[in-house]
Specification:
With 255 residues, the protein is α/β, with parallel strands linked by helices. It has 8 helices and 6 strands. Strands 1-5-6-4-2-3 form a 6-stranded mixed β-sheet, covered by helices on one side. The chain starts with 5 loop residues before the first helix and ends with a strand.
Length: 255
């Protein structure tokens, strides 16, 4: 939004040209930016459950103090100095902060920096156990058909079109030429069958094991205003994502 606000940017740039030689204006902007940045770094630490109670109090005190001081500086200069300089230089501060926030948001969309990063409003990630599922399919295929990718695999998934798990499974089974996708289990079920956990079928002579395949995080996982503010500022959320799990069914009669 800040990058698209061309009239605001043009007006602020024009005002900078007017007072570019005034040292007081530059000093006000630099001091205010320094205090606001210190406050932005401190306040989220006050709500971090990983910090002790003493550290949360310290972070809150520093964040509130620097925020109040950043506003107090402008009032003091306006009373003792010149309100015209305050009116000209003040729009530069939110403009610089907005530009920095926008650039950081764009960068965070391309890079993940830890388990708590949630860069988008809807965040889908393959589960780490997906590698175990693929390895198990290869091993069972080798035992069943003599080749690591020769077994017939049925994927019985009710929502073949809308469920984000289906494209993920299609990619994982791309090397299995005999993989079959359907909305329900066919009458001639394959030795290996994949189904959702929520709709467990009754397969006589089969044994099953659960595997998480997809982790999904949405903004509904933000329980309160503090969590939402932390996500807006740092793209971090402490609430774990929801897991989508499936069941791998294996025909016990197959050798």
């Amino acid at each position: 939004m800040t990058l698209l606000a061309a009239p605001v940017v043009a007006r602020a740039a024009g005002q900078i040209c007017e007072w570019r030689s005034e040292r007081d204006a530059w000093l006000l902007v630099l001091v205010s930016l320094s205090l606001l940045i210190a406050s932005a770094f401190s306040l989220p630490g006050a709500s971090n459950a990983a910090n002790s109670e003493e550290w949360r109090v310290l972070y809150a005190g520093v964040g509130i103090a620097t925020l109040v001081m950043s506003l107090f500086v402008w009032v003091v200069y306006g009373v003792l100095g010149n309100w015209r300089t305050v009116a000209q230089a003040l729009p530069v501060v939110p403009l610089v902060l907005g530009l920095a926030w926008q650039v950081r948001s764009m960068v965070s969309l391309s890079y993940d920096h830890g388990a708590w990063r949630r860069a988008a409003i809807v965040h889908d990630l393959p589960a780490s156990d997906l590698v175990d599922l693929q390895s198990e399919l290869h091993n069972l295929s080798a035992l069943n058909r003599g080749g690591a990718r020769e077994a017939v695999v049925d994927v019985a998934w009710p929502s073949l079109v809308s469920d984000p798990v289906v494209p993920l499974l299609r990619w994982q089974l791309r090397d299995f030429p005999y993989a079959r996708f359907s909305a329900s289990i066919p009458s001639d079920a394959a030795p290996l069958v994949l189904t959702p956990v929520e709709e467990q079928p009754r397969l006589n002579g089969y044994s099953g094991a659960e595997f998480p395949v997809l982790k999904r995080w949405t903004m509904a996982k933000l329980p309160d205003f503090t969590s939402a503010l932390r996500w807006v500022l740092y793209r971090e959320a402490l609430a774990p994502p929801d897991e989508t799990r499936l069941i791998l069914w294996v025909d016990k009669t197959q050798k």
